[in-house]
Structure formats: C-alpha cells, structure tokens
Amino acid sequence: MFFGGAGGVLCGGDGSGVLFFASFEPLLHSGGGGADGAGVVALALRAHLFTDALMLKRWIHDGCDKSRGSFFCLLLGGTGLLLFLGGCNILAFPAYVLFGKTEKTVEAEYTSLSGHKTAILVVGPAGIDFEYPYARADLSMATSSFIEQNVESVDFVDQESIDRFQYQHFDWYALPLPTVAHQLGADRLLYIELIQFSLVEPESVSLLRGRVLANVRIFEMESSEPAEASYKTEISVLFPETAPVPMSDTAQIAVRQRSIVLFADQLAKRFYRHKEPAK
C-alpha cells in the first residue's frame, strides 16, 4: 500500500511517497522538475535511506539556490544522486585497497530452523497493542520474511493461522508452550517477548525515535525438555541512532517501518552466516 501525497522526497512537497510491507522496501517517488532544481529522480530505495533522502534533497536545494546556474545545479544533482544510489559502496573499494578488509564473517548462532515447521509468537504488554495496533503482527511477518530469504528449507506457520488460534483460545497465554506448538502444528517455537516498542522520544510529544527491545527464545518440541529454551538472545533496535526526527505522518510511518525492518534483520542474522562491517 502507498502512503503520502504529491511532491515526492527529492522534488519538494512533504517528502512523502513510501511503500511499506509489500517487500519491506520503500519506494520514494519524485514528481516533475521543481523550481529548486532538485526534481530529477524517481528512486527505489532501501528503508534506511529515508533520512538520507531528505538530507540530499535539502543539500541539492541549497546548492541550487546559491548557484542559480542550471549547469552547476545539474552537476550537483547528478553528484548527489550518484552518492545516494551508491551509498557506502562508492567508497568501499578505495577503502578496501587502502586499508584492507572492511568486512568480517559472522557465524550463525542457531542453525536448527532448517527442515522444521516454525511458529512465531510475538507477545508483549497490552499497552503496545493499544498504542501501536498490528505491531506484533508486523514484527512476526517481517521476521519470517527475512529468515525465509536467508535460511534454506525453513517453513513457517502462517500468521493467519496463529491469529485464528489466539482468537479462539483467549487463555492461550496460560497454556504450556509445547501445547501451543502442538496446536499450531509446529516443531519449533520462535517466541518473541516484547519489552518495549515505541516510536515517540521519551519526554517529548513532537519527536520520533523508534525503540524495539525483546527477549527471544526458541523451543524445540523434540527435545527431552521442550518447555526449556534451546536458544536465547536479546534484540535491541534504536532508529534513528544519531538523533530523533520531528513528528509528521510520513516520518512516523518511516520510523515505524524502519524499526521493524531493523529488528527483523537483526534477529534473522542470528540464524545464518553473514557479513558485517569490520570494526
């Protein structure tokens, strides 16, 4: 589904036009050429570039306002677009040549999801459901999507079946987890216990910053002690990391989506070998 109005991120307007949860990739649209010279591109971008897009738009806008020269403005826009599209990859090769290896391989912490039917249960304080409807479902679907993309032969109980089970069993919280897994037809239970899910900066009503904190456990039904977790970890997300952003409808959608994507990506990486920047 699409959110936002006319104008687009790079072409003025309100910086809207973000696509969410079709493939967990936002699409930022530009309109026609704006008077500020910044209306030059329609881009498909990753979610974490949302804030960078707004910064790029202001940078091109300010440069064109100062120069008032069409050639310089075009050059500025082209340079900004190149850096924006390439991101860190533009600088990665020179850095690799000058300083050596820039990435490290991180091994999976848990490797027993493959070949098993897994149910994802996201639980948390009632206040989260009241303040952020569908947050638990979005976290579950995002997590399963990231795992499916990176872990072979993994099979998940669909979210609709989980929702139906919870609706039909209001007391399911009180049931032993092996019983819940059996009712869902799963031999793995990925249990995500939300400690915090918030989008508003503490002690503020006009600033946004996503915070997601959860304890994660995996239960194996074939284990001799299926009620004991076979794997435990904690996932913590803060977005944006550097500073909160001003409140707006578009920003709230973007911060929510990016926080969920970061959480799902972080959790999924516990289950497969991947590359991370070397420190």
Layout of helices and strands, plus pairs?
Layout: E1 2-3, E2 18-19, E3 27-28, E4 43-44, H1 50-67, H2 70-86, H3 89-99, E5 103-106, E6 117-123, H4 126-131, H5 135-150, E7 155-156, H6 159-168, H7 177-184, E8 188-200, E9 207-220, E10 231-239, E11 245-246, H8 249-268, E12 274-277
Parallel strand pairs: 6-7, 6-8
Antiparallel strand pairs: 1-2, 3-4, 5-12, 8-9, 9-10, 9-11
Helix pairs in contact: 1-2, 5-8
Which features characterize this protein?
279 residues; alpha+beta; Rossmann fold; two-stranded antiparallel sheet; 38% helix
Question: Mind explaining what this structure looks like?
Answer:
The chain has 279 residues and is of the alpha+beta class. The chain has two domains: 2-99, no CATH class; 117-277, 3-Layer(aba) Sandwich (Rossmann fold), CATH 3.40.50. Helices cover 38% and strands 23% of the residues. The strands form four sheets. Strands 6, 7, 8, 9, 10 and 11 form a six-stranded mixed sheet that branches. Strands 1-2 form a two-stranded antiparallel ribbon. A two-stranded antiparallel ribbon has the order 3-4. 34% of the residues are buried.
